[in-house]
Amino acid sequence: MSHYLTRRPRRNRKNEVIRDLVQENTVSVNDLIFPIFVIEGENKAVEITSMPGIYRYSTDKMLEEIAACRELGIKTFAPFPVIDEAKKDRFAQESYNAEGLFIKFIEAVKKNFPDVVLMTDVAMDPYSSDGHDGLVDNGEILNDPTLEFLGKMALAQARAGADIIGPSDMMDGRVGFLRNYLDSNGFQNVGIMSYTAKYASAFYGPFRDALDSAPKFGDKKTYQMNPANSREALLEAELDTLEGADYLMVKPGLPYLDIVKLLRDHSHLPIAVYNISGEYAMVKAAAEKGWIDGERARNEILLSFKRAGADIILTYFAKEYAQYLKR
Ligand code: PBG
């Protein structure tokens, strides 16, 4: 028995070749940024318990890791430093120490791999004894005084060779402030990927384990956005655009696909999405238990970002996805 149907969408799903022909989105290694964790010392590789497969590497080891990723086609990295507790202070002064771990690391990468692009994080938390992204006074996270420290940090990173800076702090006015700070110091060509819509999320947990950077008191709700809001993301996007951002980012990724789409529809700038530590951990944990097929879940998640309109994906899956593409 067959019915008369003019439209049979299944015709376009008939076999793999046809499915490939009509496929609307793909994820290429060119779209990926790999976030990486750098530690002090030599010949060190310490796996992060809550992020199976992701290691904190000392600089020498990380250079090997970058070389391996480069062979796989990954060209952009977002490094984060793990700072000894003894080097943290209220003002995050270690963040602009020219002899410090992070600045030295940036120099080493650019010296060994001039073609590798580094997007460096600008926020006080990895270096702050308070574990907050801004300067703390009497339990309050100060906005304008924080900008000065972010400026010093961004300038030190730019001097060391950073290609793009990524302010992840969510202070008001920081994109304009940093643009002006970099320009007046001769760094007009350093880009800014703003963490435009960064939400106060439970999914940052494993990252804060990785860096030992959890807030020492309170939470980040006076600067990171309320997960209930989307119009506010448009306001942040408008401000970042006016202030000179070159890219807009949404973070976390999976629970905020609507925000990715919203910014895509309202902006001409490239849109990035950060598939964060907790999202990575969920997939790994469920796959370890045999509850889901981790590889297929990963591919589906990465595709969902492209479908929602992201141009760029920051993801801890970058290396294993590149390996998968090579197979
Ligand atoms: C801090 C920063 C965070 C992440 C990137 N930069 C954590 C936070 O805001 O507490 C999270 C990344 C991840 O969870 O993978 N400025």
Which bin fits the share of residues in helices? 25-40%
- Strand residue percentage: 15-25%
Poorly predicted spans: none
Look at the structure and name the CATH superfamily. Aldolase class I
Major β-sheet annotation: 8 strands, parallel, barrel
Number of domains: 1
Radius of gyration, in Å, reads 20 Å
Count of DSSP helices? 11
Element pattern in H and E: HEEEHEHEEEHEHEHHEHEHHEH
Average pLDDT score: 97
In which order are the strands of the major sheet placed? 1-4-5-8-9-10-11-12
**Coarse shape:** globular
In this entry the ligands are: ligand PBG
CATH class bucket: Alpha Beta
Can you put this structure into words, describing what you see?
By secondary structure, the protein is an alpha/beta fold. The chain has a single domain (26-326), classed as Aldolase class I (TIM Barrel). Helix content is 38%, strand content 18%. Helix 9 packs antiparallel against helix 10 (294-308). It is globular, with a radius of gyration of 20 Å. The relative contact order is 0.14. It binds ligand PBG. Ligand PBG is lined by residues 121, 123, 125, 133, 168-169, 204, 207-208, 276-277. The site of ligand PBG has 11 residues, from helix 6.
Short key terms for the protein model shown above:
18% strand; alpha/beta; 8-stranded parallel barrel; binds ligand PBG; globular; 327 residues; single chain; two-stranded antiparallel sheet; TIM Barrel
Short description:
This protein is an alpha/beta fold. It is built from eleven helices and twelve strands.
